[in-house]
């Protein structure tokens, strides 16, 4: 079985920082692309960031470029999302996801991700 568990969310003031972690149990993640998505209250889940298997290719949504960084530690089966200069519009539940597709092309499409965590809430107060 595959389990993804996010942690690191919380309440932070605008301009602050948080680092989210995603622990994966089951398969080694070294052969899978990984992604972060978020869902704000009343809105659809949206793409935030993705990273390829060895971490040398990343994709970020325009709304977080320059502020968020996705990284991974394959030896530890962990994926991270470092968030700085947080804004109130970053308030959402953040989800980690695993992409099993045999491709090196990173996806921003929720339907391409096979496994999801339960999410960790991030609240940015203005």
How would you describe this protein?
This protein has 126 residues and is mostly beta strands. The chain has strands at residues 3-7, 10-13, 18-25, 33-39, 46-51, 58-60, 68-73, 78-83, 92-99, 115-116, 120-125. Strands 2, 4, 5, 6, 9, 10 and 11 form a seven-stranded mixed β-sheet that branches. Strand 7 (68-73) and strand 8 form a beta hairpin.
Low-confidence stretches: none
- Binned, the helix content reads under 10%
State the end-to-end CA separation: 40 Å
Strand residue content:
over 45%
Counting DSSP H or I runs of 4 or more residues, the number of helices is 0
Assembly annotation: single chain
Radius of gyration: 13 Å
Short summary:
The chain is mainly beta.
Descriptive labels:
single chain, globular, mainly beta, 11 strands, 126 residues
Write the SSE topology.
Blueprint: E1 3-7, E2 10-13, E3 18-25, E4 33-39, E5 46-51, E6 58-60, E7 68-73, E8 78-83, E9 92-99, E10 115-116, E11 120-125
Parallel strand pairs: 2-11
Antiparallel strand pairs: 1-3, 3-8, 4-5, 4-9, 5-6, 7-8, 9-10, 9-11
């Amino acid at each position: 079985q595959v389990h993804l568990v996010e942690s690191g969310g919380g309440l932070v003031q605008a301009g602050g920082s948080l680092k989210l972690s995603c622990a994966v149990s089951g398969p080694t993640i070294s052969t899978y692309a990984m992604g972060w998505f978020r869902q704000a209250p009343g809105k659809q889940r949206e793409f935030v960031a993705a990273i390829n298997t060895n971490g040398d290719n990343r994709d970020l949504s325009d709304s977080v470029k320059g502020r968020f960084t996705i990284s991974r530690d394959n030896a530890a089966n962990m994926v991270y999302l470092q968030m700085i200069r947080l804004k109130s519009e970053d308030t959402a539940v953040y989800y980690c996801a695993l992409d099993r597709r045999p491709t090196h092309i990173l996806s921003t499409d929720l339907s391409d991700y096979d496994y999801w965590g339960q999410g960790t809430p991030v609240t940015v107060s203005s």
